[in-house]
Amino acid sequence: ASNNSPHPDYAEIVVVRHGETAWNATGKIQGHLDVELNENGRQQAVAVGERLSRESKATIIYSSDLQRASETAQIIASKCGGLEVVKDSNLRERHLGDLQGCDFHEMKKVHPTSYKAFMSRNEDEEIPGGGESLVQLYDRSTSALLRIGLKHKGERVIVVSHGGFIRALYKWARPNGRPGNILNTCVSVFHLYGEDKWTLKVWGDVSHLEKTGFLESGFGGDRNSG
Questions:
Q1: Which residue ranges make up each domain of the chain?
Q2: Residue 23 labelled as part of a binding site
Q3: Residue 132 appears among annotated catalytic residues
Q4: Cβ(21)–Cβ(68) under 8 Å?
Q5: Which residue among 12, 32, 71, 93 is the active-site one?
Q6: Which family is this sequence assigned to (predicted)?
Q7: What is the radius of gyration, based on Cα positions, of the chain?
Q8: CA-CA distance, 83 to 152, in Å (whole number)?
Q9: CB environment 153-178: b (16+ within 10 A), e (fewer)
Q10: Over the stretch 175-224, which tens digit does the pLDDT of each residue have?
Q11: Is 178 one of the annotated binding-site residues?
Q12: Greater model confidence, 169 or 220
């Protein structure tokens, strides 16, 4: 980072959850399945893009390669003067194994074993069908953010990801806190100084949606994220 950067000691990482999808709206579990934004989600992405365009200038956007995130990132990029979007599969949602594609209210009935693993308090428990444990998700999320932070010291960068991924970052910053709902296109800001020094400056902010009428669905933004 050059000496004239606004904050030479740390990277400011703005983490954004993707906009709403049809599956968010109806309560279907996505995980790694590739579902596009719905119209509501596109409007949310426009709103968060306009908000970020008014804040201090970001240099690059990193996005999960799943289209609900990458589409959100492209909309933000265009609102922020055409920023480059780098897709990174490490920024994907938690892999939810057999539960992917399942209706939230049917999970228990259709995949009782996977449902039990999903609800388990044992953070090492993997979800059958190739799913990740909470510990695996945590390691993937935090190392992805650190990698980006160490590469962009002195800059402001935007990361577009998913509810479960973002919840893991909260746990990293505030091990004993309660994250609450992580709504579509909510904004959280981390300052990363290095491996073991970071601060959470803003959490889950959706003030950009307040006057738009697009705040309705937060499904997947609670601990049942997907």
A1: 11-104+134-216
A2: yes
A3: no
A4: yes
A5: 93
A6: Belongs to the phosphoglycerate mutase family.
A7: 17
A8: 15
A9: bbbbbbbbbbbbbbbbbbbbbeeeee
A10: 999 999 999 999 999 999 987 788 999 999 999 998 777 665 554 444 44
A11: no
A12: 169
| Whole-number Å distance between alpha carbons of 109 and 116 | 11
Under DSSP, the state recorded for 103 is B
Q: One-letter amino acid identity for 83?
A: L
Determine whether the annotation assigns residue 17 to a binding site: yes
pLDDT per position as a tens digit, 6-45? 678 999 999 999 999 999 989 999 999 999 999 999 999 9
Range 11-104+134-216 classified under CATH 3.40.50.1240: yes
> Please, what is the average pLDDT of the chain?
91
Q: H or E stretch including 48?
A: helix 39-54
Query: pLDDT category, 73, cuts 50, 70, 90?
Result: very high
Q: What is the pLDDT of residue 196?
A: 79
Which tokens sit at 110? 């259709």
Q: Which tokens is 30 given?
A: 């996505």
Given the residues 18, 95, 152, 208, the one annotated as active site:
18
Q: Which amino acid is at 90?
A: N
Query: Partners of 61 in the beta sheet?
Result: 85, 158
